[in-house]
Design a protein that fits this description.
Elements lengths: L1 E4 L1 H10 L9 E12 L6 E10 L5 H4 L3 H18 L8 E5 L5 H9 L4 E4 L2 H10 L5 E4 L5 H11 L4 E7 L2 H14 L9 E6 L15 H13 L3 E7 L8 H17 L7 E3 L6 H7 L3 E4 L1 H4 L9
Parallel strand pairs: 1-2, 4-5, 4-11, 5-6, 6-7, 7-8, 8-9, 9-10
Antiparallel strand pairs: 2-3
Length: 304
Amino acid sequence: MSIIGGRLAFAAYLASISLRTSTAFSALTHFPLTLTLSDGSARRTIPSIVTMSASTSSDAEMKVDLASNIALVRQRMDDAISSNELPAGSVRLVAVSKTKPLELLQAAYESGQRYFGENYAQELMAKSKEMPDDVSWHFIGPLQSNKAAPLVKTVGLDKLACVETVSTFKLAGKLNRAAETLNEDTEEKKKLGIYIQVNTSGEDSKSGLSPGGEVTDFAKQLSEECPFLSINGLMTIGAPGDYSCFDALVECRDEVAAVLGKDASDLDLSMGMSGDFEVAIAKGATSVRVGSTIFGQRDYSNLK
């Protein structure tokens, strides 16, 4: 790099430099800066330091007003709760932060948000190390069984509040074993919370168990064979605009509660996203997953 100008001009130039980088996973990088001064003095090479990031923020992301967005979503939730005569505070907001840089999560945290949802195991593990310990993490994406143990052991049972996408015994077994390992040398035993994922739309593109006997049989066997997992509810994605999917999950919840000997109200219903969370609340959701309405549109280019 060559900069031509007098010493005063050079000083002014340096003062005007503004480097915009993400705070997520940053590291200091050194590179040589070669200067040619206009007064004829010799060229010199000096070390310079800039902060580089593995996850730089786009201009659009940096312009997101997290506080206003969260406040608006919470107001819409409160309005839906009130209009349906539900108890105040009866619905949890999970802010879906997948692919988003750490500074946006930190801004959401500073606005009072404590529940965050991530779709990728590696991303959740990395972010959980940087965010405060009182954050409750929900894993809401497809989870390969070989990623189950690293996820549970890295994040820990205190911070990993729930894995929402459990629909196979293979995955359940891996999660159970990982949770058991973390309990080996502790007096107070803790369980890993999970939701059973239900494919209420019947679409081949969606994961999950089919409503009915497939869900209840799975819940029963899970409760008998996985003592370190706690079935805390059910989750569905559903088909866009097909609100009967929400009704189907409510029915599944009632059937699972009967099998487990619980009150239906003891089981969460995770359903509803940015485009339909108010309808989901009206249908009985106790946890909604909202992403783009809070954080803005997603950029997947850094995942390629």
